[in-house]
Amino acid sequence: MWYALLAMKSEASEIDIYMRDVDRTLLRENLKLTPAQRLEKFVKFVRFTSELRRAGGKARHHGQSEEPEQ
Questions:
Q1: Which pTM value belongs to this model?
Q2: Which of 8, 35, 51, 52 is the most exposed place for a label (fewest CB within 10 A)?
Q3: pLDDT band at residue 44 using 50, 70 and 90 as cut-offs
Q4: CA dihedral 22, 27, 29, 34 (to 10 degrees)
C-alpha cells in the first residue's frame, strides 16, 4: 500500500515538472471557445501547415533546377 502512495506522489511530481512549462493562458482562452470555434481554429491551422509544406516543396524544387554557382 505504501508503494502505491509513493508511486502516486512520484507521478504528481512528474506532472508538476511538465506543468510549469505549460502556458495556462492559452488553455483558458481555448476553453472559452465553443467546440465549433475550436474546430474552425484547427481547420485554419491545418490549412496553414499545408500551405507551408506546399511552399517549402516549391522552394526546394525551385532550388534544385538552378545551376550551382562556381
A1: 0.55
A2: 35
A3: very high
A4: 160
Degrees (nearest 5) of the Cα angle 37, 40, 46?
Answer: 145
CB–CB of 30/38 below 8 Å? yes
- Contacts of residue 12, Cβ cutoff 8 Å, sequence gap at least 6: none
Q: Report yes or no: 41 and 33 within 8 Å, Cβ to Cβ.
A: yes
The three cell numbers locating residue 57: 516543396
What are the Cα distances from residue 37, in Å, to 6, 34, 70? 41, 5, 53
Using 50, 70 and 90 to split pLDDT, how confident is the model at 17?
Answer: confident
